Amino acid sequence: MMALLVAVVIAIESARSISAGETKDISAWAILRVFMFGAGSMCVTGAIGYAILSVLRRTGVDRLADIPTRLRQR
């Protein structure tokens, strides 16, 4: 998915340079900037997911399996 994102950004940058009448190459900084943004957003998303899972574990979600769902016979 990161490779597709970089390819789309390269295509957008190429279209911008062509529409402006320039014939310059795509800079490596543009590709690096997109890659770093994608990697950073994945790290942030993973950290948020990990935080949510650790909070749910502390609130007792694991104990839901111990809840009696059938009536006990006396």
Give a brief rundown of this model.
The protein is mainly alpha-helical.
Quaternary structure state of the chains depicted: single chain
How many β strands by DSSP?
0
**Largest sheet: number of strands, sense, barrel closure:** none
What is the average of the pLDDT values? 78
Helix content: 55-70%
The best one-word shape is: rod-shaped
Structural class from helices and strands?
mainly alpha
Give unreliable regions as ranges.
none
Explain how this protein is built.
By secondary structure, the protein is an all-alpha fold. The chain has two helices and no strands. The protein has helices at 2-19, 28-58. Helix 1 (2-19) runs antiparallel to helix 2. The protein is rod-shaped. The N and C termini lie far apart (58 Å).
Which helices and strands occur, and which strands form pairs?
Elements: H1 2-19, H2 28-58
What distinguishing features does this structure have?
66% helix; 0% strand; 74 residues; mainly alpha; rod-shaped
